[in-house]
């Protein structure tokens, strides 16, 4: 059985810079969560530390995992690759259970900060997974200017760090990323863009063969699909990407948001 005792607030992953996670700040966040939950580490017998998405690619990700694993007894410590993360998201968002209950074929998309983890589900069984470098924090904005552009966009857009952030310029990037999601879902003829944005960890495996599936969404960007937020409410392109998805072929047929969105993984 499962009983939820406490849910922490959602935090952006603290970074020392673009390639290093700030382990000390993460430990502080975990300390605060224990205190707010009214639980001491000594009371916890077992648990899991799982690092996902863009953060798993940082240089010191494994060191951060090892440090956090000391918080309690028997912890599972893992860096989730794109295939495992796709499975976690599809399960956590309720997409697998919904497919089993309804008999619907579901193509689930967990769209986070840097990656979109994809899973094709039929009668409650995950048939295949995929992952694209599509996410709300591929471009970050601070004080009205672009302060970060992910290397995966280097050859795909003409924007530069320091440029004034305008909704018009960033909308074109969001629409391009959305087109890649449409291709992955079998709703648009694939172009080289799909291969360019597929994560390198997947190698040369073919994308999922999706037909007549209900599209399901989770991840932070899912919260921006049916809810309007100001363009730069979170210092990134998440709200703009969410609107691009809502206006795309992905949402023209039947679609659903997960029972968990940002917390699905």
Describe this structure in words.
By secondary structure, this protein is α/β, with parallel strands linked by helices. It has seven helices and eleven strands. The protein has helices at residues 23-37, 61-68, 82-92, 95-102, 167-184, 192-197, 238-246; strands at residues 15-17, 20-21, 46-51, 74-79, 106-111, 116-122, 125-132, 139-142, 145-149, 214-218, 255-257. The strands form four sheets. It has a five-stranded mixed beta sheet with strand order 7-6-5-10-11. Strands 1-2 form a two-stranded antiparallel ribbon. A two-stranded parallel sheet has the order 3-4. The longest helix has 18 residues, at 167-184.
Considering the chains and any ligands shown, give keywords for the structure.
265 residues, alpha/beta, five-stranded mixed β-sheet, two-stranded antiparallel sheet, 7 helices, 28% helix
Layout of SSEs?
Blueprint: E1 15-17, E2 20-21, H1 23-37, E3 46-51, H2 61-68, E4 74-79, H3 82-92, H4 95-102, E5 106-111, E6 116-122, E7 125-132, E8 139-142, E9 145-149, H5 167-184, H6 192-197, E10 214-218, H7 238-246, E11 255-257
Parallel strand pairs: 3-4, 5-10, 10-11
Antiparallel strand pairs: 1-2, 5-6, 6-7, 8-9
How large is the radius of gyration?
19 Å
The major beta sheet can be summarized as: 5 strands, mixed
How large is the share of residues in beta strands? 15-25%
Shape: globular
Strand order of the largest sheet: 7-6-5-10-11
Report the order of strands and helices.
Answer: EEHEHEHHEEEEEHHEHE
The low-confidence parts are: none
Q: Would you tell me the overall average pLDDT?
A: 91
What's the tally of helices? 7
Q: Structural class, from helix and strand content? A: alpha/beta
Q: Report the span from N to C terminus.
A: 19 Å
Number of strands: 11
Helix content: 25-40%
